[in-house]
Each structure stands twice: as structure tokens, then as C-alpha cells.
Amino acid sequence: MRAISLVSKALLLLLMGLGLAPALAQSEELTLEWVQRGASPHFVYFLPQHYRDTPQDMTSKQIGTALECLEKTHALLTQIWGDNLAGKTEYFKLASRQEMGQVTGFLAQGLAIPSRSAIYSIHACHVHEVAHLLTLPDGFAALNTFWIEGIAMYFTWPSLTCDSEIPTPDCPYRDAIGFYEGHSVHFWAQKFYRDRSLPALSLLINGDPLFHQLDGQHSYPVAGSFIAFLLDQLRVEPRQFRQFLEQASRANSNAGVLDAFRLLLGRNLGSVEVEWHEFLETWDEGRLRAVPTHTPYGGFCRTERTTPLYRPL
Asked: 81-90, 144-153, 255-264: which range is least confident on average?
């Protein structure tokens, strides 16, 4: 058993500035006693002590399945992106946004803390937050939220957390495309493009005010859609894109980010944005759901689990 104290307010304010959590909680602080309930090669899984024998508790099978999901996500991202973590990631599972607010200071579904290689989440396996830890470049403090959230949304594949081949509302397709509120990121970006509410990329790529002014239903899938367009349609190599993020994190102006983008693709952002809009115009969400056979990157997006691979404590 171990006690985990509150994350410092200074760090949390920094995380807010980075866009890693949406809002300060308006609730009293809570310090919990945490118990290690499972471990795998890259993760250590914790639950609050007071969850024991309550509806908020997890069974051994559920914890094993969660660890398998986390390991599958780690394997996928490190194969595509590379591994920039040393040691194991501590995963702290909570039951509600209210408790997230009380423990971390932020009302959010999840919170990644790169400096501690730690994740707090209300989800048993939070792919989006794992993606944050594995994709943030050195010096990420200067990288704006559009890129940070876009790359994490790109990897938010429902197939990583689905146990069944049968479509469900939470797992409507098996393709390796970011998922948000029941649809792919391209579905939402297409909707905003058609109703003329899609923001110009030049307003999002450096500096965070507009990103945070948009509601999450706009900002997150739009960022994820553009990153997915770069990686999947224009075939930008993920490791090359990571180099761009490292350069963009050192840029202190729109011009600096645009120069880094031009160096990455040999083209300007404006022309790529036009192509993205043309792609969105022809996007067919129905076909995505009708043909669940896309298995890139060595088939990692298929789930073939029959029993948990990692034994809980």
C-alpha cells in the first residue's frame, strides 16, 4: 500500500497551459491511499484502497484485461513512434470525474503527467493518455495544444479497447482511425467543414487561445483529423513527424512552425490544408463502418485475447 500526494498546483497549472487537462476542479482536495493491484512489463496498476468490495472495485480479470490493453497500446505506439520512456508507467484508476477533480485538481477523464510517467484516469485503459506519454517530444512545454492533442487523438483507436468483432456504440469500427463521441475524427471535421465552422489551421498551429476557446467537440477531432490526414493520406512517416514536433516545440512564432512544416513536407501548410478539405468533402463514414478489415502496423488493431496476459496481484 502506498500514499500518493496531490500533484503540485504549479505543475497542474503548467499542464493546463499545455492543454493536458481542460479545467480546474471546483471541489475539495482529496488525498487517497493507493494499492498496487497489478503489473505488466511497462505498467503498474493502482486502485484506491477504499474501492475494495465496492461497485467501484475491479475484478482480477478486469485488471488483467486493462493491463493487456495498455501493453497492446504501448507495443503499437512504440513500433510506430519509438519509445521515449524509461521505466514503468504508474496507472491510477479512478471512478469518476469528480474524484479526478479532487485528486488531481482537474475535472477531466484523464491526465498524463510526463515528468512522473504517470496517468490518472476514469477509464480502465486510457489509450489517449498513453499516447500523450509516448508521443510528447523533449521540450514539449513549448509545443502547442493542437499538435499535442492531435497526435493523441490520432491514436485513439477504438479497436485497441474492443474485445469483440461485433460492432457496438463504443466500438463501431475496427479501422485504425481516431474515434470521438461515436464517430471517427474525420466525420466530425467533415461536419464542421460543411457547416463552415472548421477553423483555419493558421489560427491553431502556434499559441493556444483559439484551441481552448473551441468546445472539445470541435478542437479535439479537428486536430486528430488533420494529423490522421498527414500520416495516413499523405504518408508522412511517424518518426519524421516526430522530428517536426520537436522543431515546432522550439519555434516561438507562426512563421517558425510554418518553416518547420515546410521543411517536413516540402510544401506549405496552406496547400496541404486545401487537400485536407478536399479529402473531408469525399469522406464516407458509412464505408468505414461497413468494411472493418483495415489492419495496419502489423495487425495491432485486431483484438485476439481469450484470457488476460498479465496476472493481477
From this structure: 81-90
pLDDT digits (tens, 9 = 90+) for 122-163: 999 999 999 998 887 565 655 778 888 999 999 888 777 776
The 3-class secondary structure across the chain, one letter per residue, is: CEEECCCCHHHHHHHHHHCCCCCECCCCCCCEEEEEEEECCCEEEEEEHHHCCCCCCCCHHHHHHHHHHHHHHHHHHHHHHCCCCCCCEEEEECCCHHHHHHHHCECCCEEEEHHHCEEEECCCCCHHHHHHHHHCCCCHHHCCHHHHHHHHHHCCCHHHCCCCCCCCCCCCCCCCCCEECCEEHHHHHHHHHHCCCCCCHHHCCCCCHHHHHCCHHHHHHHHHHHHHHHHHHCCCCHHHHHHHHHHHHHCCCHHHHHHHHHHHHCCCHHHHHHHHHHHHHHCCHHHHHHCCCCCHHHHCCCCCCCCCCCCEC
Output the pTM of the full model. 0.79
